[in-house]
Design a protein that fits this description.
mainly alpha; 55% helix; single chain; 102 residues
Length: 102
């Protein structure tokens, strides 16, 4: 969503959105309650909703992932981390196939 400076200025002129409450004015009078529907509504695109869902999923990744990564780092530094050539070839083919789908 992009809001230009002109749009933000117009938005600030709209005032608060939502029902107004009874307030006492400086002259001692009261203002009326406005129970009307808010002047603006907000809706999010399906892409924005998908991003929010993905972010929530990422935020819920267990901390065990960090332990796994640290374990791999230690193996690489010690020279004990080995991957079979067939696993590497399999991953290369999977990624090539996935790139063609996009």
């Amino acid at each position: 969503m992009k809001i230009s400076n002109d749009e933000s200025l117009r938005a600030s002129q709209i005032g608060p959105v939502g029902p107004m409450t009874n307030n006492t004015s400086a002259s001692g009078g009261t203002t009326q309650t406005n129970d009307a529907t808010p002047a603006a509504t907000v809706s999010f695109s399906s892409a924005a909703q998908d991003i929010a869902t993905a972010k929530a999923a990422i935020d819920n990744v267990p901390a065990g992932r960090e332990e796994f990564v640290n374990s791999l780092k230690q193996q690489v530094e010690a020279g004990t981390y080995n991957v079979s050539s067939s696993d590497i070839a399999d991953m290369m083919l999977r990624r090539a196939s996935a790139d063609q789908v996009q």
